[in-house]
Design a protein that fits this description.
The chain is mainly α. The protein has one domain: Transferase(Phosphotransferase) domain 1 (Transferase(Phosphotransferase), domain 1, Orthogonal Bundle), CATH 1.10.510. Helices cover 34% and strands 7% of the residues. Strands 1-2 form a two-stranded antiparallel ribbon. It has a two-stranded antiparallel sheet with strand order 3-6. The chain has a two-stranded antiparallel sheet with strand order 4-5. Strand 1 and strand 2 form a beta hairpin. Helix 2 runs antiparallel to helix 4 and helix 2 packs antiparallel against helix 8. The longest helix has 20 residues.
């Protein structure tokens, strides 16, 4: 479904594993570079306005493409966006990975949007999850955009107001973060960033559940911010020209399992 999209890793091979262990599958994917969180920390924990704006345009492109295929991403976070390999033609392209939480929002048979509902649990990464997602609401395209608004602010400021809140469980963490997001206004959350960050966040929060986002308007906010600040979209990022160790391909060391694990059944596993 996503094969022709820019910034979507190529899948070279996919198959069920040996018949003796049918619950496992094999996937061979394109080898990529570091994720956005690694690059962020290597650049001092925050990006310049120019880099954030160019990153925002790229990620809005990725999410628009995924939405155009009838899918929601539902797991926005800095670790899920990877650069290409160093010195490869796509080394400045941000790739979106890990579709484990993705879900169709358009019924492939009826072509109808999924109905709004309140579910039992939340799906996503609490730091970036939208307010409706934290309230256990069925997610729509608006929730991916709201999550992006928090990610962009994090990349620029280096921190979000609800980071570090205590919570021993996923549910407790979601509860604490939801309380904080409801307590703070958008202007308070975006106080240390240019006004366009707040405009994008307000736009995402105010979208109706089934509404199709105006992606061009969203990209335009960040493009206009660059123009207003005399910045040029030239693909020169904060990390451009650097050759950090993490960008080089690393050989992964595998550990041999202790004892015989081949026939072990995982508790609660569903076929």
């Amino acid at each position: 479904m996503l094969t022709e999209g820019q910034g979507v890793p190529a899948v070279h091979y996919f198959s069920e594993a040996n018949a003796s262990i049918p619950k496992y599958h094999t996937m061979v994917m394109e080898l990529l570079g570091p994720n956005l969180e690694d690059v962020l920390q290597a650049c001092g924990g925050s990006f310049t306005l120019k880099t954030v704006c160019m990153v925002a345009v790229q990620l809005l492109d990725r999410i628009e493409f995924i939405h155009s295929k009838g899918l929601l991403y539902r797991d926005i976070k800095s670790e899920n966006f990877l650069l290409g390999r160093y010195k490869e033609p796509n080394h400045q392209v941000l790739h979106i990975v890990d579709f484990g939480l993705s879900k169709e929002y358009i019924n492939p048979t009826t072509r109808q949007h999924v109905a709004f509902s309140v579910k039992k649990g939340s799906v996503g990464t609490p730091r970036y999850m939208s307010i409706p997602a934290l309230q256990h609401h069925e997610q729509g395209r608006r929730d991916d955009l709201e999550a992006l608004s928090y990610l962009f602010l994090y990349l620029y400021c280096g921190r979000l107001p609800w980071q570090g809140l205590p919570g021993s469980t996923f549910a407790e963490k979601c509860k604490r973060i939801l309380e904080k997001k409801l307590k703070l206004t958008v202007d308070e959350v975006c106080a240390d960033a240019p006004p366009e960050f707040g405009k994008f966040m307000k736009y995402a929060r105010n979208l109706e559940f089934e509404a199709k986002p105006d992606y061009e308007f969203c990209r335009g906010l960040f493009k206009a911010m660059m123009t207003a600040n005399g910045l040029e979209s030239d693909d020169v990022y904060d990390w451009t020209g650097q050759i950090p160790e993490f960008w080089k391909t690393k050989r992964v060391k595998t550990r041999k399992p202790k004892g015989k694990t081949r026939s072990r059944k995982r508790k609660g596993h569903k076929k």
